[in-house]
Amino acid sequence: MADSVRRKLKILFAASEAVPFAKTGGLGDVAGSLPRALKHAGAKVAVIMPKYSTIPAEFQDQMKHVADFYVPLSWRSVYCGIEKLTYRGLDFYFVDNEAYFKRDGLYGYFDDGERFAFFSKAICEAIVKVPELQCDVLHCNDWQTAMAPVFIREFYNQIPACQNVKTIFTVHNVKFQGQFSDNVLNDVLGLADVPAARDQLYCAPQAINYMKGALLYSDMITTVSPSYANELQMPFYGEGLDGIFRRRAGQLRGILNGIDTTEWNPKTDPLIAQNYSADDLEGKAEDKRAIQEEMGLAQDPTRPLVAMVGRLTKQKGLDLVRYSMNAIMARGVQVMVLGTGDKDYEDSFKYFDWKYGNQMSAKIAFDGKLAHRMYAGADLFLMPSEFEPCGLSQMISMRYGTLPVVRETGGLQDSVQAYNQFTGEGTGFRFANMNADEMASCLLNACEVFWTNQEAWHQLQVQAMNEDFSWRRAANEYMDIYHSLHPEVIRYNKRRDI
Length: 498
Ligand code: ADP
Fold this sequence. Notes:
Bound molecules: adenosine-5'-diphosphate
Low-confidence stretches: none
């Protein structure tokens, strides 16, 4: 083995979206926050993503052209520009090709298989052709970058710039795998004559699965919570890939995401009626009164106020909420919902809003500022998800002293400690099964604590608010993995010791 050296590991973080440039979901938040935390943890980090025409002009205007070359994509040779922007101290590189990325949205086009195969190939070419993008570890995320680990191994293995590159692939949601007709194998990927790749990419007789490729070709696989890493190995959660997750269990790790603790901080949050902290929770009462008023709910401090903020989809366990709404309302509990999603759920919540007057309120909208006021003003946050790879909302609510009521799955299980009435320990309330009565009983038990034991309630709030959901913890765990792939490099700056 080569002599050990102490230096910064070079990480190239590849994602199809990153805040503040482009976001459709949790991946955008992660790619906007984790790389910065990795930099603080002692890595040299660059982020690479597509240059979408929807990136705000203020950012596009600041980008500098650093390179251009042609990317081989089966029979094509496709133009690729590389532009750079340093944002809050972090280097972002943008892959430019207007034919692929000058569109109204990010995904959902007929040629997505080609667009993101191009992006993945462009990443490999950039490592070879742009010296500042040479790296020790290529960290790919979700199916849009999944072909890069395959290409690196099949096409770039003999090229010095890539020989020592280790790959890591993070699954943010296994529901989206990037499945395409097997025409792409020859027409786009250029892998039809590579038997090993061909066999591993097939997921059905005529279907190619990009995520499957990454799961089989990457040196390490991670996902966004330890429990989801276990669940992915089960048929119920694995979406057909559970066998592969089981096969690669030795290289699979779950690392809980963090949240942006600056944006989500009740002590300094400029968007809420009154600031407060774990040391002095007094201001939260005014936040509750203000949101009750804003949402058209009775301004009554004695009623537990339950919030839900999120996508209104089946994943979020909304069938349980629909089923038990009457029982919850019968106990005098208030419920407020903010979300958009499936029309069926939107209509149900509009109906409850109408039926229960000033006891139930639903806003069918996406409103980031209102979300802040709801997290601050509520007493409880309900999240009975069917599955939840990580989940941010429960962490945000804990930070605001709003106790989560969650189903024991994925990141919910890993981030919420169940209330123990004998010891007073806990940061929220949990139930196990996808059962509406069980959910309602868990929620009403929580309300019982609210009504009858203010001391225990206050202690739970303080414990929840004192949890560490910063990205620093997650970044340290990723650093451990990167270094396990490069044992010859001694860790430059171990933040854990600070
Ligand atoms: P997922 O990524 O599955 O949608 P998460 O809990 O991981 O769920 O993250 C959802 C994030 O989006 C949270 O920060 C939540 O506050 C925010 N969010 C979701 N829907 C809305 C909405 N309608 N208005 C404002 N914020 C929302």
